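Late entry, written up from scratch paper. The run itself happened at the end of the previous shift, but nothing got recorded in the book at the time, so transcribing now.
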Amino acid sequence: MKKGLLILTALLGLNGCGTLVTLLNPAQPYSAYAGTKYDWEMAQKWGLPILDLPLSFLLDSLLLSTLAVQE
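Output as recorded:
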């Protein structure tokens, strides 16, 4: 039970962090699936962000309508 709760907490902590990193970066405007691209680039270098890739894809998909409204 404790192990499952720990895994769930870790996954929720990873939720969309690639997307949040790209959203909070004022140097670049947000583009479609920027968090997914960021996670893919980091996974090529470090490997661990591949765990966050599906969650970033989901959050980027949800934010896609917001991006369309801004343009």
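The longest helix spans residues 53-70.
(Scratch paper discarded after transcription.)
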